[in-house]
Amino acid sequence: MAEYCDVGYVNGKPVCYLPITTPTGKVRVLRGDQPVATRSTEIREGDVIEWQISYFADERRRMVELATLLKLTYDNSLIADSELRQTLSKIVDDVDFFAEKYFISVDTPSLPEVFHGFRVLRKVIPILQKDVDDAQVWVELRHKQRAVGFQPMLYLRIPVDAVSPSLTGRIAQARQIVAWQPSIPVLFETLRAFSILSTKHHDDMIDVLKRVLGI
Description:
Helix content is 25%, strand content 32%. It is an alpha+beta fold. It has one domain (6-95, 127-213).
């Protein structure tokens, strides 16, 4: 069962509490594209925290993470009613979706590299990426695990120097949790990214916005 990250509203700002030492969790530290064993490896400047952010839990009955952050910022007047309604109108009109337009392929060059008698091929994976303030929205297309087709996976990548307490130059403590304050543009761009991933994600974002607005 997925463990969802706690989020809150502190001193006039939304806050996310990210556990970085859970091996099978939704949050991990990356160096380049490789996971860092935070309990045994010193965290460096330039490392990033990758968070596979969610929005619904319990078969859509409960809002979590992104949806809760949007609700908190709306209820505390950090996001105007008109902004959310305008965003909803734009999303409703979307007709092109990432998972339906792009696919994973294998590059087969005419003169491939050979390793011990085997051809070396490279898989081409479509990725969506956008820098927003101190974070990066990152989407990878992956094969579905129990079905035919592709599924997009969305992550937020956050520099380690954007969280507190500071992690740089040390290993993480047991059950280490760090706090990060996402900006309003980060929340909007994450919402926007989810809305263009697939028909299902698109419909989910419409549902999220309607729940936040109470309509």
